[in-house]
Write a structure and sequence with these properties.
By secondary structure, the chain is mainly beta. Helix content is 2%, strand content 40%. This is Sugar lactone lactonase YvrE.
Length: 343
């Protein structure tokens, strides 16, 4: 029902995590070995061995000093350490979850927020869930215990695909839906509502709608990048009816994951996975008027690793994920690795 969400708490099968380096594993036993943490420095690039994982989303976990990656193929969550080793974290997600996509670490509340959908590419896809099963998973960041599952197949639809997440200081999550052309709000007590459903966020005959999402705390606005149109929308959360297009000095078709930098700039990853005029690049945008307009201040093109989809800011620089999803979407041979490459 619009304005509410079905919340199911339960336990996911996990490999117990350790907080930083010295936390005890559940039950107070000796610390359990996990992914190798980054200490003082990090390599410019990590090639991670993983058969058919196809991660599209990445997040930095300060408690582990490691990366977390999602899985379009399996619907799982894994940890990537400093040596490029892969450690399973969430291995048996809720049965309703087909593909995990965007993620956010809520450090203040020790939560991991994960968007899920079924675009028809996951191993568990089926007709009754394809473009119908969509929502937000919430896990305990330390143990991996599932805290909530919020159904986001809400609003007008008729298709849904929760994709990426932005988080504000209060713990409220904003989730974009490139199939429905919508942005949802999920409060810290897991109540869901539609913030806005707008033509600026909508899909086209040529590709997906809003995929990238970020929250500017100072301005109180959600920023959403439309994948197929290459345009940036500005959504004031206090007045969503005032949603408008940001005047940008260039179109960015194929825009996928986006993130805010500590200095208030917006980083945009783009590709041509489903955008014939998209570029494999990372673009940095800045504003002087609260995102009424923006200009390009840096651009990294061509991106050296094919099909980048997401990026995350770390103490060691910003890393861009190339999860080999081009192989999955194109029906090519199964991927055996993925790459995290620093800007």
């Amino acid at each position: 029902m619009l304005g509410t969400a079905a919340v199911a708490a339960g336990a996911a099968a996990v490999v117990p995590g350790v907080l930083a380096l010295n936390a005890l594993s559940p039950g107070g036993s000796e610390p359990k070995a996990e992914a190798m943490p980054f200490l003082l420095s990090a390599p410019p690039s990590l090639t991670v061995r993983a058969d058919a994982l196809y991660p599209e989303g990445v997040a930095w976990d300060p408690t582990r000093q490691a990366f977390l990656v999602s899985s379009t193929g399996r619907g799982t969550i894994s940890i990537v350490g400093a040596d490029g080793g892969l450690t399973p974290f969430i291995t048996e997600p809720d049965p309703r979850v087909v593909s995990t996509v965007g993620m956010q670490v809520d450090l203040a509340r020790l939560r991991l927020l994960v968007a899920y959908h079924d675009f028809g590419f996951g191993a568990r896809t089926k007709p009754e869930t394809a473009l119908k099963s969509a929502g937000l998973l919430v896990y305990d960041l330390v143990s991996g215990r599932q805290l909530a599952l919020v159904d986001l197949a809400i609003g007008a639809g008729p298709v849904w695909a929760a994709d990426r997440i932005a988080l504000d200081r209060s713990g409220t999550a904003y989730v974009c839906d490139p199939a429905a052309g919508a942005i949802y709000r999920v409060t810290p007590d897991y109540q869901a509502s539609v913030v806005v459903q707008h033509p600026l966020l909508a899909a086209s005959a040529h590709g997906a709608g809003v995929v990238g999402i970020a929250f500017d705390e100072a301005q109180g606005v959600v920023l959403g990048m439309n994948y197929s149109a290459g345009t940036l929308a500005r959504v004031p959360v206090a007045d969503p009816a005032a949603t408008s297009q940001v005047r940008v000095d260039r179109m960015l078709p194929g825009s996928d994951g986006i993130t805010m930098t500590p200095d208030g700039h917006l980083l945009v990853v783009s590709n041509h996975l489903a955008a014939h005029d998209g570029s494999e690049a990372v673009t940095e945008l800045a504003t002087t008027d609260g995102w009424l307009s923006a200009r390009t201040v840096a651009r990294h093109e061509p991106w050296p690793i094919p099909s980048p989809t997401d990026l995350t800011v770390t103490p060691y620089g910003t890393y861009v994920l190339s999860g080999r999803v081009d192989s999955l979407f194109g029906g090519g041979p199964g991927a055996t690795d993925f790459v995290l490459h620093r800007i």
